[in-house]
Specification:
mainly alpha, 2 helices, 0% strand
């Protein structure tokens, strides 16, 4: 059934968004931990963990936005289908 498939797809997208949000929070906490451990930014050492945390934020943000866009498209398709049926 189309409505159930759409609901499942939206649920999957929302779950993906929550996972991306959790991952982004974890990465941001890693960056904050490094920033807070050294008071003077000039003395801050750039570690591989810091670089990884920063660079992993990019695909995480892209995944979040892609899931949000999928929900918008699914809603638009559902609206069109409902207009055709009416």
């Amino acid at each position: 059934m189309q409505v159930n498939n759409n609901t499942t797809a939206i649920t999957n997208n929302l779950h993906g968004m929550l996972q991306a949000q959790t991952q982004m929070n974890d990465l941001a906490q890693t960056v904050a931990d490094v920033s807070n451990s050294v008071g003077d930014p000039q003395n801050q050492e750039v570690t591989q963990d810091l670089v990884d945390a920063i660079t992993q934020q990019i695909p995480t943000q892209i995944a979040y936005e892609a899931n949000a866009q999928s929900i918008k498209v699914e809603n638009a398709v559902q609206d069109v289908l409902l207009n055709i049926k009416a």
